[in-house]
Amino acid sequence: MANTADISRGMIIKLDGSLYSVIEFGENKTARAAAKVWAKLKGVDNSRSIEKTWNSGDTIYPVRVEKKAYQFLYKDDSGYNFMDNETFEQIALQESMVDAPQFLKDGQEVSVAINTETDLPMSVELPDKIVLLVTYSEPGVKGDTATRTLKQATVETGATVNVPLFVNEGEMIRVNTKTGEYVERVK
Fold it and tell me: Do 109 and 85 meet the contact criterion of CB atoms below 8 Å apart?
């Protein structure tokens, strides 16, 4: 058992029979009343996002989560298929469990969060930044660089990313998977 002093960002807790990941948390202290702890929670096994407030010192129920390295194999009718890098066991997961499915490419290593109580996968996280090949991009107009103008480019996974005008077709770029934004050009 844990209490509200143990809350941390990324922790997964059980609340009303569902699992939630802590996105943000804080504490409100007033002169007369006892301190309150609040948290913004995102559903792991559902698509709900909620805010919850506890009295300071209340009991919370954290879930032990283990992160394992998996490799993305392919996508088919059963979902996204991944292989455990240690046991070579394969699992198929739904698109809703993958944090940025538009950036998945064959052979890419991902991190799968597994609930240790039930041994079931809960979510799939891509690395924060990945390198992708630009497969299509309109040529930039010469002299249009006074402002930070962006154009759309299609990457090898089929996703579109806004890139600066100097990025051309056939170049490698680094993309932030959390925001979907261009980071830098890779040589």
Answer: yes
Laid out side by side, the sheet with 150-155 consists of 160-164, 150-155, 129-137, 172-176, 182-186
What is the per-residue pLDDT across 59-102, written as a single tens digit (0 to 9) for each?
A: 999 999 899 999 999 999 989 999 999 999 999 999 888 888 99
Tokens of 79: 């979902």
Strand order in the sheet with 59-62: 2-3, 59-62, 12-15, 18-28, 36-43, 49-55
The boundaries of the domain holding residue 19 are 2-62
Domain count, the chain: 3
What is the secondary structure of 129-142 as a DSSP string?
A: EEEEEEEEEPPPPT
Distance of CA 139 to the CA centre of its chain: 31
Whether the predicted model's global pTM rises above the 0.85 cut: no
The CATH code of the domain that includes 15 is 2.30.30.30
